Amino acid sequence: MRSEITVNPDLITWAVNRSGLSLGDFKQPVQEWIKGDSKPTVRKLEDFARKAMVPLGYLFLSRPPQESIGIPDFRTFGNEKRRTFSPNLHDIVTDIQRRQAWMRDYLIDAGDAPLDFVGKLMSTTPVVKAADQIRSRLTLESNWQQKQTTWESALTTLRRSMESIGIFVCVTNQVGLNTRRSLNHEEFRGFVLIDEYAPWVFVNSNDTKSAQMFTLAHEIVHVWLGKPGLFNLEKLDVAEDDMERYCNQVAAEFLIPEEKFASYWERSGTVQERCVAIAKAFKVSPLVAGRRAFDLNYVSSTTYYKFYRQEMESWRELKQKNKDKPSPVFWQQQQLRLGDRFGYAVVQAYAERRLLPSEAQDLTGFNRETFSKYARGMIRRKSGVGP
After folding, report:
1. Do 291 and 241 lie in a common domain?
2. Model confidence pLDDT, tens digit, residues 201-240
């Protein structure tokens, strides 16, 4: 005789929504459990929990739990705050937190001093002054993007400038090496973990390169303020929070100085033509240019949000068209996923026998053979004999 158990249908619905999957991705009995037409057996509930990536014990609670990932959540969805965290988001944050904790200890043991710019900026600092201060510390000229030939090269330049002064940067579109656990850019575009020794920024690469540029700039301001956060920047809007508004303002000024924006905007053309021209010049997305125009009162909110919808529709069509294009090669992906500073520190600690093989594999997500290949490649690059 089958042993059926009683589970609150709200918990089943919560687990489905939390998983990021649709109800149709689950077998038919799940819909019956939600309706109350049937009850699951222990075995079926275990199978459901595994697919939904939720701890089995959560399904025996009286109501859905209030989960936390330990950093302020500045995401918006519609006009409401998103209060759920998918397993993919939860696991990627946990993974980076673990790397950061190890890196902090590593740097302290090595005798490194705390970084002087983390938390240095006050949100009362004038926006232009703040952007100039950040740009100067990163040793970037005011026209650095205009010197880049592509969005990709501009993004690489900014990322390397950040790492050169002690900020850890990782960019990926999945959890670890699991291609089935893709990160949803609508759920979050990035997050920042603050530490005076090892500040860490994460960018979800399931987004256009030009859109990633604004996410990265927004995160830089968080580091200077010394404030962690998780955000999705939907419509390039931010949560009802003064600090988030300030971060967006400084990020926009950092990428497209108001004075230079004005000179570009004065050239003839439609709103779209002007935004595309500015986007190409400053290596940002047309949406960032459009948002800048809105914030500087060059266009109305109606015009901006209409432009936003059109651009998003064009982006979806382009993404669908390019879905079968080859992805970056594996080792290029790993360089971005781990970041050069962190990757080299792990390799160095392993070489000096300060890190066990199992620990190195846990920190990088590689098996033993793959880690060995990664370590050899990292050493070649640092020695200047490899790409």
Report:
1. no
2. 999 998 777 778 889 999 999 999 999 999 887 767 666 7
Q: Domains in the chain: how many in total?
A: 4
For residue 351, give the 3-state DSSP assignment: helix
CA 155 – CA 184 distance, rounded (Å): 20
Residue spans of alpha helices (H) in the chain: 9-19, 28-35, 42-52, 87-109, 127-137, 151-164, 209-225, 242-255, 258-265, 271-282, 286-295, 301-321, 330-338, 340-351, 357-364, 368-383
Decide if 223 contacts 199 (C-beta within 8 A). Answer: yes
Range of the domain at 369: 330-383
Retrieve residue 119's tokens: 């938390």
Do 201 and 56 lie in a common domain?
A: no
For 355-371, write each residue's pLDDT tens digit.
999 999 999 999 999 99
Predicted TM-score (pTM) of this structure: 0.87
Cβ(247)–Cβ(225) under 8 Å? yes
- Among 164, 148, 287, 123, which residue's Cα sits nearest to residue 214? 287
Give dist(CA 129, CA 145) in Å, integer.
19
d(CA 336, CA 334): 5
Distance between CA atoms of residues 270 and 15, nearest Å: 46
Residue 108 C-alpha from the chain's centroid: 26
pLDDT at 79 exceeding the cut of 70:
no
> Is residue 111 classed as helix, strand or coil in its secondary structure?
coil
Tell me the two tokens of residue 85: 């965290």
What six digits make up the tokens of 261? Answer: 């924006």
Q: Is the domain of 135 the same as that of 227?
A: yes
200: three-class secondary structure by DSSP: strand
The region that residue 78 occupies, defined by phi over 0 for left and psi between -120 and 50 for alpha, beta otherwise, is left
pLDDT digits (tens, 9 = 90+) for 297-346: 998 989 888 888 888 787 777 767 766 666 668 888 999 999 999 999 99
d(CA 258, CA 255): 9
Task: Tell me, letter by letter, the H, E, C secondary structure of 139-177.
Answer: CCCCCCHHHCCCHHHHHHHHHHHHHHCCCEEEEECEECC
Name 230's bridge partners.
73, 191
